[in-house]
Design a protein that fits this description.
- By secondary structure, the chain is of the alpha/beta class.
- The chain has eleven helices and eight strands.
- Among the domains are: 47 residues; 152 residues, 2-Layer Sandwich (Nucleotidyltransferase, domain 5), CATH 3.30.420.
- It is 37% helix and 15% strand.
- The N terminus and C terminus are likely disordered.
């Protein structure tokens, strides 16, 4: 006799008939119950005076027919992956977002619009407004685009799906300037790690107002102006080999890093016994990814700000 655990038992009195199993599958894939779990289906059927099988039996049937994750007549859902972009120099891929700044009136906010170059990490433009409007976004984008002197170059601009990012004015401006739009998936902040990380850096600065409250829009603009100046010109960013965003954005990175590398090699030559490893790697990453491909390890995406 075959005593293996999974061997069939044709004479098992508890075994469902083919007709009973077909009836259960019909219920599980019906329009009414196709999106519900057996734990929901069984009591609902009971309320109608119907008992077909236990929850565990229904789960077993789903597993047997490979229907645990999807059933019914609709197409199997597919997770739409965000498009991947890579920057190999400044002025190729920007990301932007809006964050709230609290006012002295509870529930009333100022809105910080902030644009970032993902390669250099430079804040290329910002503004504090009293409203969230796509026409304000469009005007600010045009101003930044002109200030950065982007002409004849393909620029990707990434954002989430808020109305100031998708409105007619901002989309029209992007089309007019030849900018390629990129969107985060709905409710997925990880698709825009650079802006999210930058806002965290901003709000955790020691100088950030106590309680995060700004008394006036002028005060908010002054504070942001000072932050942006510090961030771009003084902040030695870990993702860009502890250079400042301005240094990378203005093409000074290679010269500075070569000097650092030479200094470290000279120090190593004098006292190699003091070094447990080779000298530090002072080579700037050649590529910075936005939504990197699966399996791609990207230091820059992990240390966005």
């Amino acid at each position: 006799m075959d005593k293996r655990k999974d061997s069939p038992h044709p004479n098992n009195p508890n075994q469902l008939t083919d007709k009973e199993e077909e009836e259960i599958i019909e219920i599980l894939t019906s329009k009414e119950y196709g999106d519900k779990s057996p734990g929901q289906i069984v009591p609902e059927l009971a309320d109608k005076g119907i008992y077909l099988a236990s929850e565990s039996t229904m789960y077993r049937i789903l597993k047997k027919n490979e229907m645990q994750k999807h059933r019914g007549r609709t197409h199997k859902p597919t997770g739409k992956k965000p498009r991947t972009y890579v920057a190999t120099a400044p002025k190729q891929v920007w990301t932007w977002d809006i964050t709230y700044l609290q006012t002295v009136i509870r529930g009333i906010y100022y809105y910080l619009y902030l644009f970032l170059d993902i390669y250099s990490r430079k804040i290329v433009g910002w503004e504090v407004y009293e409203e969230e409007k796509d026409e304000l976004s469009a005007r600010l984008l045009h101003r930044i685009y002109s200030m950065e002197k982007i002409s004849g170059e393909t620029l990707v601009l990434h954002s989430d799906n808020g109305s100031p990012m998708r409105g007619q004015n901002i989309m029209g401006m992007m089309e007019r300037l030849g900018i390629t739009p990129s969107r985060s998936r709905p409710h997925v902040s990880d698709d825009n790690p650079y802006s999210e990380s930058l806002f965290r850096t901003l709000k955790y600065r020691p100088e950030f107002p106590k309680g995060g409250v700004f008394k006036s829009i002028e005060e908010a603009r002054l504070w942001v102006s000072e932050f942006v100046n510090w961030y771009n010109t003084e902040h030695h960013h870990s993702a860009i080999k502890f250079l400042t965003p301005d240094e990378v954005h203005n093409g000074l990175a290679e010269e500075i890093l070569q000097k650092r590398d030479l200094l470290y090699k000279e120090a190593y030559a004098k006292h190699p016994e003091r070094w447990s490893r080779k000298t530090r790697n002072w080579i700037l990453n050649e590529r910075v990814w936005l939504n990197p491909p699966k399996g791609k390890t990207v230091e820059n995406a992990k240390h966005a700000a």
